Structures are given as C-alpha cells and as structure tokens.
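Handover notes (outgoing to incoming on-call)

Open items:
1. Putative HTH-type transcriptional regulator YdfD: sequence verified, structure written out, both below. Nothing else pending on this one.
2. Nothing else urgent.
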Amino acid sequence: MPLKRQSAIPLYRQIQDYIAEKIKNGEWASGAKLPSQRALASFFHVNRSTIITALESLAAQGLIEGRRGGGTRVINSTWSLMAQKKATDWGTYVEAGRYKPNLPMIQKINQAEFNPRVIRMGTGELSPELLPSEKFTELVKALSPNLLSLGYQEPKGALHLREALSRHLKTDGINASPSSILVVSGALQALQLISSGLLDRGSSLLLAKPSYLYSVHVFQSLGMRFIGLPSDHEGLQPERLAACKRKYHGVILYTIPSFDNPTGALMPEKRRQQLLSVCQQEQLPIIEDDVYRELWLDAPPPPSLKSMDRSGNVLYVGSMSKVLSAGLRIGWIVGPEAVIERLADIKMQSDYGSSSLAQLAAAECLRTGLYQEHAAFVRKQLRMRRNHLVDLLHTYFADLGQWQIPSGGFYIWLELLPAIDPKLLFEAALRHDVLINPGVLYDRSARRYLRLSYAYASLQEMEQAMQRLRKIVLELAN
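Putative HTH-type transcriptional regulator YdfD structure tokens:
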C-alpha cells in the first residue's frame, strides 16, 4: 500500500486505517498474527515509532492485542464487535491443517522474489530475457482451431502430448509408450502425487544430503521421514545405500543425478550403474528427478537411470519449466503402467487434469522443434552466465570461499570459509536488496554454504550482488 505522504492525514492514521480495513474485511481474521513491527516498518517504509503509534490506536479500539512472547494478534473485528459475537478463530484451523507451512526463510524468499528492487541470486528459474516469449506467442496464434480443446483431457493427459513426449524421451534412450506417461502440472506435483499415492505415512525416504527436498514439505506433510545419505562432487554415494535401507526400512530413493539441486553435481555413468545395481538387489524403487538434464553446458550428461533400467524400478520425472517456461506448468512421470494409472486417478481427484491449453502448447513446442531449438539457446546463454559468475567468484570470493564449477544446471554450491550465522547473512543480504538461498535450506548442517544461481539475474546484477555480498560477509565475519 503506497502511503500518501503529502496528505494531511498522518502516516500512522493511514497505516491504522489500512490494518483496520484488513480486519474488517476478514482478511486478517480473529487469532491471526500481525507481522512484526520491524516488518511493518519495512513494508510501509516508515520508522518503527510510526508503526507503534498505529498499533496502539488499534489496540485501544479493541481490534488487536499484544501478547508477551506471542507477538500482536487480531482479537476481534468490526463486524463481530457490532454483532456481539465471537469471531471464528481461523488460526486454529490453519494450524490443524495436514500440510506443513513453508520454512520461514522460504516464505520470505517467495515474497522477496516479487520485489523489483531485489537481485535474485538464488532463484531456480530462467530470467524473463531467456524465455521464448515472441516465438511462443507466434506458435499459439498459429494453432489450428481443430486442435483447440477447452474441455477436460483424459486422466493421463492429452494423448497428442503423451505421444510427443514418447518421441522426445526416445532421443534420450527412454522407451516409454504414451500409456506409461502421466502429464502433471510441473515436477513438484509429480512428487506430491507419488508421496500421497504410493507411500504410507511413516515411510522412510532415502536421499542425498544436501537435497532440494529438504526445502519443501511435500513428503514431510504426509508424515514421512528423510534419511540423508552422504554425497560428494559426483552426487549421491551408493556405498552406504543398502545398509541405510535395511537399518531405517527405506521404501524409496530420491535422486537428481544430472546437475543436482542445490549442489550442481553430475553423477558419472559408473556411479549410476552402481546405484541401479544396489537398488535392484535391495528392491528399492527410485524417483529420478531429471528436470535439469537438457541444461548441460560442457557436454551431454551420461544416460539417465531410467534409460538403463531394465526392471521397471525407476519412476522418471521431467519438466519443461527449466527450459521453456516455469509458468507453463507442464511436467511428466514415466513408470510402469499400473503405477501411472494409480497416480492418474489421484491427479483426477485433485485437479481433474492439467490445463488443456498448456498441454496443447507444450505438444506444439515439441512437434515444431521450438523446445529443442530453445534448449540449445538456453544452454549457450547459461554457459556464458555460469562463466561470468565463476569469474566474479574468483574476483570477490577467492579468499572467502571455495566452489566446484558445475557442468550444467543453474547452480554453484559456494562454501564460505568464515563461519557466519546463515540467518544473519540472509537478512543482511536482503536489506541490501540481494536475495540468496542459504545452504541450511537443503541441509541443516550446511551452515557455511550458499546456493548461487546464474539463471535469473543479469550479468550486471550478478556483479552488483557479489560486490555487496563480499562486503556483508567481511562485516559479519569480524
């Protein structure tokens, strides 16, 4: 809400009226916790004293109440005061929900990503300037009306898209008929369907540590626990896999063998074969998350686990989000037909199928070659951006950190040499309009690490960000 600073109405009154309107409209219901005074001051760009004055006035009206150790909460609404009735405590319902909220730091990241002043050095998506906006618009305009469908698609997804995906996957050595492919709304939904449709509450999921899955609560919200396995610059190490599976009763393995998130590691072919062999012996199914596969920068990655799988042990997850458009929300799962049918049934219960228009556009991108053409363009641009960020690290962090140069994907896993509280570093960087992803989001013990992305920020923004980060790290290290 932009304050009218030239208005005769004092700033505290404008803020007071804004909050009162939120309460009156039911947007901030009884029991809801208000943002902190510091957060409100930052949001309105005023001093904390102005916020305190506004909150004291609202408290005098009986709308909010400060609680020792519990922050400030809404205790009533204009409507309920008039009606002399107790308002519904929606906070009780919110806290009782099955799905866990995002980590506070993740919530802040999600909000800050929409602040145009912030340089996004951790964002896992392509910069708008790397998206094929014009070509995509032309492709959609050229669509035949005969292909256009505004109705629901069949449970596994539009057949013409699954046929196109079947042909596309074959170029990577994956033989999957359309009947063994499920179209999903991005890779995250694929994981949600697997967690709710195939795994029991209390199941143990094995994964590398650090891992992207620690930063989201897809599996934890359904009562599953994670068993972290050691990893190195070549990804997950299979040596301890069998012992961990038996000790912790692991039911499934999750891995990103090609350009891991967050470390950027690439698993070599020999290790992939070892991993497959152990999992087959232990009858341990695998979720292969391969969304970064086409983003190789130096050389194509080794064959996917799925392409080497001869026992139907691998569920393969792919997506168009990392190459074509995060907003298109088209991904896929490849697996045994019985599993795909089970997951398709659950997807129908949750959203009745992915967008028909998005599926049609995705199929046309594959059919016309736009997807493959754009993937080549993105690889070229990411190679230049990666090299630029590596140069900046040599310039500004040669004495403050160490890193491996990734051969693909979006990320550099930077290890800081000074021991700095990751939360303090995150907050300090954000105050200087630099958004970072601390390593603790992916492994609580990774307190010295940062996941840096070269996919979103411009070359100039990267340099500004790294200059600011160096200064912040030096200040916090003293």
